[in-house]
Amino acid sequence: MPTATDSEERVQSYFPRWTLKSSGVIMPEERLPWGQTIVSGLQHCVAMSGSTIIAPLLMGFDPNVAVLFSGIGTLIFFAIVAGRVPSYLGSSFAFIAVVIAATGYAGHGPNPNLSIALGGIVGAGVLYGVIALIVMWSGTGWVERLMPPAVTGAVVAAIGLNLAPVAVKAVSANALDTWIGLATVLFIGVVAVAAPGLWRRLPIILGAIGGYLLYFLFANGLGFGKPIDFAPLAAAPWLGMPSFTTPTFQADAIFLIAPVAVILVAENLGHIKAVGAMTGRSLDRYLGRALFADSLATIVAACGGGTGVTTYAENIGVMAATKVYSTLLFAFAAPVSILLGFSPKFGALILSIPGPVIGGLSIVLFGLIAAMAGRIWVENKVDFANPANLITVAVALTAGAGDLTLKFGTVTIGGIGTATFGAIILYQILTSPLARRAE
Predict the structure, then answer these.
(1) pLDDT tens-digit map of 375-399
(2) Per mean pLDDT, which range of 14-28, 83-97, 194-208, 241-255 is the poorest?
């Protein structure tokens, strides 16, 4: 009886058989030694935690619930893509504007209309799932035609540039905040470039610790800034149940929030392309699964009081800095996040991180997102001598960076959405037969 070779077994198995590799670039089907895997997984927890907690706070959601469902969503994603796509799912910023508009949220404390927002997010998840099923049934060809490398690179860059003001604002309150933020950036850079061995793979964690300690020295120790308040951290229990909330379905909120699904498709596509460019291999065959996994994770999260989720650019930034793409990191990070969701102490600790330190981390991570666009363009040999490519990218970057907002009645599309739809539509117009005939 013939025996299957190792390579044949790998092809037939649903999940990869992760092979051990301790140095160099670590590909998705490879793994670090278990100790390094654990520490690197924790780094991804740190990378996602800032935005995964900030986004729900801006909408009046419970951050511990958001962290919990980010872990659950990541496990859903990991299972559906068969452990082939390295991604972490965290709170999506694309929902913030429409959730605030749909609920009339005042901007502080719990959102009194949270359940209405959750119904709209479920609606977005369902629409997202329908799009995913179409992609899985019909293939990615139409998506490729709709969003070729010139467009996807522009969307990726627009996402990073659109988030840039958030990072800059976080370090701009006063001189101390600015210098702490820049010092955090420097810590990250020095660790990524010059740290020995394992430490070089932990720039985000070490940068955050360095910035935290520096702020503590100057604020709490020397009195040059607002001191870190450790009272909430001391009072928070180690274990406790999050505040779950169920959705309420109202048509107006659903119609307002559901179109965000299209932005999530563009974000996910851009992230898949970015990871593909970084690893040097196409992940397009997993796009339909990735979209469906993200949609299902969004629905599950909203059914329990969590935010809509998306594949996280912050974690892509970590992969870009560390060159570790092993999907096992996310299989470890997700359960840790689930456990942390049941720890009010963790939420209090994260909330104690000074704003300028978060800002410094964001400057690096959001910048790495934008920089990934360059790699997409280079890897795909995008011709910028072609006016269609050049003008599409130019308009998308400006719309994204400037946060160009469009309003259609009660529907508002922010800068990321405007850049996304603008790039897609403009490219199709400029490359249409009519435009070519005019040449």
Answers:
(1) 889 878 899 999 999 999 999 999 9
(2) 194-208
CA-based nearest residue to 370, from 270, 438, 282: 270
Q: What is the distance between the alpha carbons of residues 56 and 117, in angstroms, rounded to a whole number?
A: 12
DSSP 80-131: HTTT-S---EEE-GGGHHHHHHHHT--SSSS-TTHHHHHHHHHHHHHHHHHH
Residue 10 above 50 pLDDT? Answer: no
> What tokens were used for 314?
């912050």
- R_g over Cα of the chain: 21
Query: CA-to-CA distance for 66 and 59, rounded, in angstroms?
Result: 11
DSSP assignment, residue 26?
Answer: B
Locus of tokens 């359960």: 335
SS3 277: helix
Distance CA 98, CA 326 (A): 35
pLDDT over 60 (residue 257): yes
- What pLDDT score was predicted for residue 86? 93
DSSP codes, 361-405: HHHHHHHHHHHHHHHHHHHTT--TTSHHHHHHHHHHHHHHHTT--
